[in-house]
Amino acid sequence: MKQFGQKLTFFFFMITISFYLSNCGSNRVILIYNPDDPVLENKVLKRENARVVLVSDNRPVEPEYAGTAQTGMFNKKVPYLLDEPVSKFITESINELLATADTTDSILPIGIQINQFQVSEKTFAISEYGYFDCQMNFYFPVTRDSFAIARISDHQSVKRSDVTGSLKNLIYTGIFNCTKQFVEEFYDSSPKYFISTRDTLQLADVKSIYARSFAAQMEDTTNQFVYQSPYITKSYLKFGILRGDKIKTGYQVAYNLYRYKRTSNLHFGVGYTANYFDLANVRDYWLLEGKFINFGAQFLTRYFLTPNGRGVYLAGAIFLTGGVEKINYGYDEEENFFYGPVFTERIGLNIENRILLEAGLFQLKLFGSKLLPSDMGYKLSIGIGL
Fold first, then answer.
1. Which tens digit of pLDDT belongs to each residue from 156-213?
2. In the 3-class helix/strand/coil scheme, how is 112-129 assigned residue by residue?
3. Residue at which a domain ends, from 183, 199, 219
4. Which residue range(s) make up the domain with 113?
5. Do 115 and 143 belong to one domain?
6. Whose CA is closest to 282, among 235, 247, 232, 333?
7. E strand or H helix that includes residue 337
8. Total structural domains in the chain?
């Protein structure tokens, strides 16, 4: 009986100890913002005019909530919180990375919408893994009446025997990487519209625009306007008809490829062209007729009279070609090597980047050719966006 009592006492003692150990960890982990953190002290991202003026938290959680951590001997899952709203934490951290002295006369006001900001921990065997994921939209004005949006994301992870203390490093590093991506891929290569620090009314207007956009994004996160890259690449397959003094009928098939800044009206590109001409040269050589086929590379440019790469545009191209022509006189045959440029100037209409309609002029000069030494005329073409 005495032994049974001792065993029962030991059993309840172990239950009590187990209960205590399972709850001896904290019931939450709190990260206090530290502007002197070594990651935030990095000066490489400093931009004189950059300022975060408004941050919105699009997450359906408490403002201070930043995920979960594991504490105690049995890795109890508890909330991981910041000592201030995540939106304020982001504002302070990114301004610490970007902003210089407050004495600048003008700023580029940046708005940020937080879509994901979360730490987590997992345990596998004797190791712990810590993670941090963030995804934010950076807003910045490119003209007085328009702004761009860059969607930025980052993922951080670490493996240790106890990773809870390392989660803050993942957070600061993730914020640094998001800011670095924004600066290098968007801020530095995009047009920017700066606002005077004394123009408080315009700054208030910008904040109001950001706030309305944030609200719209929160209502419909499936239809977000995302500024994924400062550059656009667009290709077209084009079909043309040409007529001139010597070209009775000409047909052209071309592949055009443009790469241009999203906010620029001036575009440059390259392409390949194949031409078939039905010729009647009655000016340079009496009744010299024939067929003419050539291939070559094109260098292209176009300028839109309206923004966003739509509507009416002026275009030009230089087409470099060369080849061999054969002329059969009936009693003799002649073979000539030719080379030279073809120039075109056109006015066009871009219909939703799907259809191009163009009309214009062409001039060519082919050195060494007797069939088509030179010509000029008009050209009509239609293009299909690929």
1. 988 887 888 889 999 999 999 999 999 988 888 888 888 888 888 888 888 888 888 8
2. EEEEEEEEEEEEECCEEE
3. 219
4. 24-219
5. yes
6. 247
7. strand 333-351
8. 2
